[in-house]
Design brief:
By secondary structure, the protein is an alpha+beta fold. Among the domains are: 9-224, Beta-galactosidase, Chain A, domain 5 (Distorted Sandwich); 242-266 and 497-609, no CATH class. It is built from 16 helices and 25 strands. Strands 1, 2, 5, 6, 7, 12, 16 and 17 form an 8-stranded antiparallel β-sheet that branches. Strands 8-9-10-11-18-15-14-13 form an 8-stranded antiparallel β-sheet. Strands 19-22-23 form a 3-stranded antiparallel β-sheet. A hairpin with a 3-residue loop joins strand 8 (71-76) and strand 9. The relative contact order is 0.09.
Amino acid sequence: MPKPSPGSDLMLSDSQGAFLVIPTMQVRNGRHKEREIENPSKYHGYFSGTQKLVESWFATAGGEPLSPENQSGFRTDLVTAEKTYSVKGVEVVEEIFVPDSLPAMSVAYYTGPLLVEFQPELDIRDRYAHSHTNYSSTFHGGTSLTQSGGRFVAVGEGEIRALNQFRYKFYPQDFDRGDIAESWVHSPCAFKGSRFGFGFGKSAEEAMANLATMKNNYFALKRDRAEKIRAAFARHKISTQNDALNRAYHAVVAQFLSIQSGGRLPASGDRWFAGDSGWLRDAAISLEAYFELGLYGRAREILSFWLSRERMNEDGVFADRLEPSPQWKGLDSTLWLLRRAGEYVRFSGDKYFLEEKGPLLRESLSRLVDRRVTTRGLLKCNPYETWEDTKFTPREGYPIEVQALFAYNCMVYCALLEEKFCDTLARYASASINCIRTLYKSKTKVEGVERKYLCDCLSPALEKAESVTPNQLVVLDCGLADEELENDILAVVRAKLSGKGVRTLAPEEVGYFAKHVGDCSYHRGSQWPLFNYMAAKREMRLGKPERAFNHYVYPLMRDALEKSVGGIPELYNGDGSDAVAPRYQTWSLASFITACKEYERAITGQQRL
């Protein structure tokens, strides 16, 4: 990315649940009298867990602010980020670095003869959010130490002077969508020097120690991160005869693995997902990328984390959220978890995992059958129990993807569990598949040709909600449709839903939104990359790899190279423009990885291991 542009981001993560998201170019806020230099979004900055600690920093070289007007370039190797500026005829390089497994970061400057003044901007929203919040800044030699809530930030190196500068932030991007976002940041001090370090911790001592580690081991930490990136690229190779796609794939894999922490998904993405304990639905869907990458050990750890008896309720449903307390609102989350657990055993051959978790998996399925399944073989769903979980899109009854996942799981576990229970599962699988192929079938015209598709949901009275949505792609992903129906569904999706992502509602439907403006539009037109891999896989398995690439891979490849480096967003607007949404969404990254590996197999004739 040689030319910076507003609207492009980069994430640098420490692989332990903390990360920095920066814009490749800051902006001038025209709504401010002072036209301050600031980040385009309140979701830029350094996050540790769910707490944002650093908003940004303000720097001058030779007395001239480093600003959007004099920024000349941006580049990254995913080890560091470099912004270049032209100041008084001198090229100024700002190098940003976040080490692995250390809550710290560094900002260094290479400026020739120009002197740099550096002001850290610390996020202090907790100071105003709670009356009991502790906030204070003190100086210890050449180091500033700030306490905000339960976190400490140490900033040091260079000649220091007290500043105590408060700045008001007002984000144009949020204003445009009606979210009147504002924030205060605090610059406790200013430094003169060339390299400035941040150390973070839950105590003053920890923050200071992490700052010292960063300072004393700076070059070794950079070498370690570079070696990790090289190793990831070497292990996770891809050969598609398309250099741009290969580069995008490697960048996405690096970001996908760095947003993880240990063996589980600590966050479903950046922005409002920052630092949370994750969503079961996101984790389970994303596991297919782990299978594609051959990371079965990591996949096992993630499955074991979520497959816990204390997290299962009386219906056999597993908690889909753990914070602030366990929540059981995801029937489809449980079905995705059961599916991935069964696939893990099939792909890895890990019989010890089946011995350990088999009784719990059987109990979950048994409870679902006893408490939720009708005599027709349909699995009942209450409102707000699927991924379309807003008050504007309740789906009570029998959503299509829930039935597909249930039927698929019945078939998978027929081969894994004891024979007596398998007979029951086989009967329900057959009944459920029959319902999918008869009760949900609808017709629509595509370019003058009548095509069949599967409706989105049946009401409790078995009335069809005939909206054209991407949820029917789960049926194809589970291999439950015959080739004629597959071809028809894919034609409908290409004509009515495909864009950069796959639209959640066809533009001609009542209630369609061309722009994502909040929960009311979340599942009514927004384009979701989540579904790209499902459509791409089926296109390729029907012998259409280039069609799959053009519709579902290429648009995401371009964004991963030209916008958020190695990033795939949660969603786009219905019209395909960028939406205010996380730029690094775990299941979107996983979708791209899976589609790329399927494309590689399709054009090289490889078989999945």
